[in-house]
Amino acid sequence: LATGPRQKSSIFYEIRTYDIKPPKMKDFVELVNKYFHLRTAHSELVGLWSAELGAMNKVVHIWKYEDFAHRTAVRHALANDKDWQGKFISAALPLVEKQHNEVAYLVPWCQIGKPPKEGGVYEWVTFQMKPGGPALWGEAFQAAINAHINKGYTKLIGVFHTEYGLLNTVHVIWWNESPDHRAVGRHSAHEDARVVAAVRDSVRFLESQQNMLLIPLPCSPLK
Questions:
Q1: 75-128: per-residue pLDDT in tens?
Q2: Minimum mean pLDDT among 56-60, 69-73, 192-196, 213-217: which range?
Q3: What's the whole-model pTM score?
Q4: For labelling, which of 75, 150, 156, 157 has a CA lying 20 to 30 Å from the CA of 46?
């Protein structure tokens, strides 16, 4: 039922979410900080975060691939990388409760942004849209996002829609200086008639919404 336009670029992003055993979160983060350079030697890491609010003991990371052949080659190289397997994977797997991955594309009207400075927080918002794809809800969704951007209530980092995983899912990443800065922006947006109108039009196509406040780990390119 996804009836949107054909994807023009072969570049896609793999979104990986790991639920870490509650007593082991500190150990997992220490492993990442110590050995994740072995993983980033093989392909581009966009961002790596731990959940602070909206979820607990959860790590989210995004990887960029040129195409599916590129991902296959990277996965093959990782399986044969003795340092990666021995130093990180063997130690990390006992700390992980479960793993989940999705393949997603950037929406055509969005490029991955950069925060104006380091030290802020990221809000990860997941929208489950009604079946039909961007041809059904794309314009209304874009208008709702732009209404927030145009007034400067928050900084947009990226908008992704799923290709593998639960379809008609859109992940939006926002950046704010702090949780309090985010709260002020949200209150202002709720009082902005243009934002309210755009959101009301978009939610006609919305099934559910969930958000998390994320903190970037030291090795994350997006900090």
A1: 999 999 999 999 999 999 999 999 999 999 999 899 999 999 988 999 999 999
A2: 192-196
A3: 0.92
A4: 150
Q: Are residues 100 and 151 in the same domain?
A: no
Q: What is the CATH number of the domain that holds 23?
A: 3.30.70.100
Residue 148 lies in a domain: yes
Q: Please give the full DSSP string across the chain, using - where no structure is assigned.
A: ----PPP----EEEEEEEEEPGGGHHHHHHHHHHHHHHHHTTSEEEEEEEEEESSSSEEEEEEEESSHHHHHHHHHHHHT-HHIIIIIIHHHGGGEEEEEEEEEEE-TT------SSSS-EEEEEEEEEPTT-HHHHHHHHHHHHHHHHHTTSSEEEEEEEEEESSTTEEEEEEEESSHHHHHHHHHHHHT-HHHHHHHHHHGGGEEEEEEEEEEE-TT-S--
Give the residue numbers spanning the domain of 28: 12-105
pLDDT above 80: residue 1: no
Are residues 139 and 129 part of one domain? yes
